[in-house]
Amino acid sequence: MAKSKIGLIIGHEYLIRVRKKSFWLVGILTPLAIVAVGVLIGFLSVANSSEEIQVAVYDNSSRLSQRIESDDNISFIPIAASMELDSAKAMVRNSSVDALLVVPSDTTVQYAVIEKGMTVYYSENVPMSVQGEITSQVEKIIQDAKIKNLGIDPETLAKTRTDVTITMVDISDSGQEKEESDLVQTVKIVLAFALCFLLYMFMVFSGNMVMTSTLEEKTNRIVEVIVSSVRPFELMVGKIISSGLVAMTQVIIWAVMLTGLSMAGVAGVATMTAGDKMTEQALAAAAENPETAQMAQAMAASQNPDAVSEMMEIITELSQIDFLTIGIVSLVFFLLGYLLYASLYAAVGAAVDSPNDAGQFVLPLTIPIIIALYCGMTIIDNPHGPVAFWLSMIPFTSPIVMMVRVPFGVPVWEIVLSAVLLLLTFIIFTWIAAKIYRIGLLMYGTKPTYKDLWKWIRQA
Amino acid sequence: MEDIILSAHSLTKVYGDYKALDNLTVDIPRGSLFGLLGPNGAGKTTFIRLINQILIPTSGHITLNGAHITREDITRIGYMPEERGLYKNLTVMDQAMYLARLKGLPAQTAKERIRKWLSKFEIENWAGKKIQELSKGMAQKVQFIINLLHEPELMILDEPFSGFDPINAELIRASIEEMCAAGTTVIFSTHRMESVEQMCSHMLLINKGRGILQGKISDIKERYKEGIYRVEIDGENIGEVEKWSEFVSWEEAKSTARKAALMRIDEQSNPNALLLRLSAVGQIRSFAEVMPSINDIFIKAVGESNPSHNV
């Protein structure tokens, strides 16, 4: 019977949320917004860089003005040495050029004065990237000049260029030697970040959902009727599971939307580019003979064996990753981590009377999550270092940190130890949370202190 | 022996160093309309929450139909808390369905009963409305209905009339009496003595966590009556009665201009003798024994249970 009641609660809470317009708005608008922002940024950066910057070069010794090269973004215009510096500056002020590069006179082989003495005058509308671009060009010019002065042959120098690649071979636990390609590394990193973010989202968003819905029932005063029908613990579990399901549904909607959008995008680009060629071909072909059109199609289809073998190669490489183990281990940590935090959020929701009062109790929950997320991002360089190890042992940070470590392979004993610690913490804290939940639900009026919470825990 | 539906045995609930309920023992007869009476903070809500198993007793226990109360029993109990509340942005139908199903009703039955009760209260057209669109009184009606849906054996109503206008209060009162006549035991918790007086057959008086008086209301009144009779009498010489040993005081009748005398006689004495003597003084318009009001009984009982305490 208890089971069917939890089922009822889950179903009810899930439907309430999923039926809300806001749920679908967030579900549909978020991916659209992500794509829109992406497109916008792309568009803006193109639009921004498309304008050419005109830089006048005032260089009395003419050591740079001859060699500095214009490109799509910046065009350099040497100005006559006879011009006064002030009138050159006036060109910037009256906008006949965007900026003025002043190179100090220096005829030494060391170029010391030039190296430290260049100035760019501008009035407005000059992107900061100009500074970097000029710097790198000038550095290159001076470097070349110095090489020449030292009598080094550029070709000899070119021969000294070295390109080192190291193959990483993992010979740990499984005992199987496996070479890891860049692709595998990348996939692992992406996987680590994705799992880590997903859990973070579940903890924070679903956790908050559990908290607000508990708080809502409490302020509505309906909670007394509910707990006269079901155990508070059943109510808590029902809310935690349904919030998790809501978040999962949201993630699925996003995934579907983003996949759909990116496929539409790819298809759009493909038809745009292919369309142009195809129409030309088709027109030409159709003009001659309908059979040629068919042949063209057949050719287009048979064009792909390369692509197929490439795909096969990718698949074999990816099959080196032990997706099964990663899946199982991350599922365990994901579930335990979510349940641990969600029950703590539930306890907070039950303990307080208003969202404002929740803040002081939510903060200690958020801090370990943020630490875990931040450290998770940084340990990706060395997923087996000491920080990674200890954070994946501490139960409040271990779920998120393990998400990052798991794709790179974690020794079995570490996984087991960490999981056991997490499980114990989960049991203890859910028990505590359930007590706070049960007592807090019917406590109104005063904002509880930590001392009160401790009393509740001991009393119940 | 009376048929008892629910009993509390030495029930005690302690919060920290505060005793909300202190060694309460009470029997609630089946089919009674049982008044749970006491001032605010007396422990009524604690007792109710213990029955509903929202709280766990510090010591003592509760039996329902003679057996220890269990979680499964909550489907036999209906409860309308004093603090009313519903989901504001759910429709009447949706929340009635959810709450009825939490009490163990199958969906189909729940739906039928909701329709039945809504039409009985002539509010069928509210089914699709959200609570936030209804007035407070309307929402209370809905809440009252929701607690009936699973047809509980035992119905607990905490201050059921608060927040109702007189017309709706009457509707609720009629429904409670109807429910009771149909065999449901109703526990009716209130701090308003007069509503218990009007409706209840049995009661428990509770103060500072202690049960101080319980039983059939007629028996209690019989026990607490003081042999006082109220006489309305007309005549020239009625002032004479003031000198009698039985005379207590004059009482100004509210509805008529007539004065009434309150007279006290011993329990053994025959009221007929007093009536005869009075009839010699003037014309008797009415002669009736004054039964103590629950309020009087309460004050007296509290005083007795706690002699040092001046009520």
Architecture overview:
The complex is a heterodimer of chains A (460) and B (311). Chain A has 460 residues and is mainly alpha-helical. Chain A has helices at 2-19, 21-49, 85-93, 112-117, 129-149, 154-159, 182-220, 223-227, 232-288, 290-302, 305-318, 323-351, 355-378, 386-391, 398-405, 412-440, 450-459, and strands at 53-59, 74-78, 99-103, 119-122, 169-170, 178-179. Chain A has 2 domains: 52-158, D-Maltodextrin-Binding Protein, domain 2 (3-Layer(aba) Sandwich); 185-459, no CATH class. Chain A contains 17 helices and 6 strands. In chain A, a hairpin with a 7-residue loop joins strand 5 (169-170) and strand 6. In chain A, helix 7 (182-220) crosses helix 9, helix 9 crosses helix 10 and helix 9 (232-288) packs across helix 12. In chain B, a hairpin with a 6-residue loop joins strand 12 and strand 13. Chain B folds into 2 domains: 4-222, Rossmann fold, CATH 3.40.50.300; 226-290, 2-Layer Sandwich (Alpha-Beta Plaits), CATH 3.30.70. Chain B has helices spanning 44-51, 92-102, 107-120, 136-148, 166-181, 193-199, 217-224, 271-281, 294-305, and strands at residues 4-15, 18-29, 33-37, 59-64, 67-68, 77-80, 154-158, 185-190, 202-207, 210-216, 228-234, 247-252, 259-264, 283-289. With 311 residues, chain B is an alpha/beta fold. The longest helix of chain B is centred in the middle third of the chain and has 16 residues, at 166-181. Classes of the chains: A mainly alpha (460), B alpha/beta (311). The A-B interface holds A 1-2, 5, 8-9, 12, 16, 217, 220-231, 442, 455, 459-460 and B 15-16, 49, 52-54, 56, 71-72, 74, 77, 79-81, 83-88, 90, 98-99, 101-104, 143, 146-147.
